[in-house]
Design goal:
Strand content: 35-45%
Shape: globular
Oligomer: single chain
Number of domains: 2
Strand order of the largest sheet: 1-2-7-3-4-11-12
Distance between the termini: 33 Å
Low-confidence stretches: 1-24
Mean pLDDT: 89
Number of strands: 27
Structural class: alpha+beta
Radius of gyration: 21 Å
Number of helices: 10
């Protein structure tokens, strides 16, 4: 299937190619795309996401997409599934291609490897490696290999070098058994490292990071912490506080919580009230009945606010809708020109029981006419002004005019 969308100004050409058959229809789709892009003018920024079923043909596919769109920059990666406007394809051969004309935008593409992390120790090192100054960057979009690249260290370095700039993206997925993924930059394909594009000038990115969790109980203050352990909460054993929280819940909520319990760590304890988007969600990975300590997949600190959370289809749906509605309220009448949706491969049909949930919700609530994305091995996005690597998250980059 080939679906083409133009905006009223002619500045946007969104192209999705979603095909569950052989590679030949995709080649034909790219041929048709070439003619259509020629009418609309060359693309500035192209996103290409492809299922790993096409892995052997990636070099030819990426080169043809780059040539067909005459892109200034092409970025993307492989995925276990791909996402288009209001549609998601999981576990089948599929492509998502989005070509954007962004008048007045500045674009700087970069590739990073594990060796980059060894030589980049200071912000100036990262700026030199990326060949772009902070004043030229409004936002970063990053796609990386999860097996041969410490992407968490990469995004930490970029965040320090470009403070205050949104940074969003995801980790490529593909052949999990072979631990093999690919990232794309312009006409080239790489099986390790990360690719990124710095967006500046007339456009920027507004982020929506939906971690799919619902707060339960009340916020508490951590009074004892060591390493991965939360030892005491409000001077009580952490396990005791957890048990009392569960006991106070309505039976239906308690049943949900017993299967999907998580921990939320507040990013700003100075807030008078806490709600969705204020917590970094992390897994509860163990407990010690003797000491009453809880082990979590983070490093909690004394004085930090903690609230227990649950994650299931209902919580994830509500969380996404609330955060998208909040984004729409903040942006007023300004509709995003496009969106890149990086959704965890633990979401999709496996979580919601039906296809297309995240892509359809994004298209319906924000009216985005051009969406491309993929199912990730990890999602990148900010919480409380700091960038993190997430799981079970929908990390969304809304491309908007700067100053909107």
């Amino acid at each position: 299937m080939v679906n083409l969308d133009f905006d009223a100004s002619g500045h946007l050409l969104g192209i999705e190619v979603l095909d569950a058959s052989a590679i030949l229809p995709v080649d034909e789709a790219l041929r048709q795309t070439s003619a259509l892009v020629a009418e609309a003018g060359a693309a500035d920024l192209v996103f290409l996401f492809a299922s790993h079923a096409y892995a052997e043909d990636f070099p030819a596919l990426v080169r043809r997409a780059y040539e067909a769109t005459r892109a200034r920059v092409l970025v993307g990666c492989s995925g276990q599934g791909v996402i288009g406007t209001a549609r998601e394809v999981e576990g089948e051969p599929a492509l998502a291609l989005l070509a954007l004309s962004l008048p007045g935008a500045t674009l700087r593409a970069a590739r990073f490897t594990q060796e980059t992390l060894e030589v980049c120790r200071q912000p100036a090192d990262w700026q030199r490696e990326a060949f772009v100054e902070p004043s030229e960057v409004n936002a970063w979009l990053v796609f990386g290999d999860p097996f041969r690249m410490d992407v968490e260290a990469l995004v930490g370095g970029l965040a320090a070098a470009y403070p205050g700039r949104p940074l969003v993206g995801g980790l490529a997925s593909g052949d999990q058994r072979a631990q093999r993924t690919h990232v794309f930059l312009d006409e080239r394909v790489y099986d390790e490292g990360a690719v990124a594009v710095a967006l500046g000038g007339a456009y920027t990115v507004r982020c929506v990071v939906s971690q799919g969790a619902e707060p339960i109980g009340e916020p508490w203050t951590i009074t004892g912490a060591r390493g991965h352990l939360v030892e005491t909460i409000s001077q009580r054993p952490a396990l005791e506080v957890l048990v009392s929280t569960l006991e106070a819940l309505p039976p239906e909520v308690r049943e949900r919580a017993q299967r999907n319990l998580l921990v939320g760590l507040a990013m700003d304890e100075r807030r008078a009230e806490f709600g969705r988007g204020d917590f970094l969600i992390r897994n509860l990975i163990g407990l010690n009945r003797a000491s009453g300590a809880l082990a979590i997949s983070a490093h909690p600190r004394i004085g930090q606010t903690l609230q227990f959370q649950i994650r299931d289809a209902r919580a994830a749906d509500e969380d996404l809708r609330v955060l998208l509605a909040r984004s729409k309220e903040m942006s007023g009448e300004q509709r995003p020109v496009a969106a890149v949706l990086c959704s965890c491969n633990g979401r999709g049909v496996g979580l919601f029981g039906e296809p297309d949930h995240d892509a359809r919700t994004l298209a319906e609530l924000l009216g985005v006419q051009a969406i491309a994305g993929f199912f990730c091995n990890g999602e990148i996005g900010p919480v409380g002004g700091r960038v993190f690597l997430h799981g079970y998250t929908a990390s969304i980059a809304l491309i908007v005019p700067a100053g909107a």
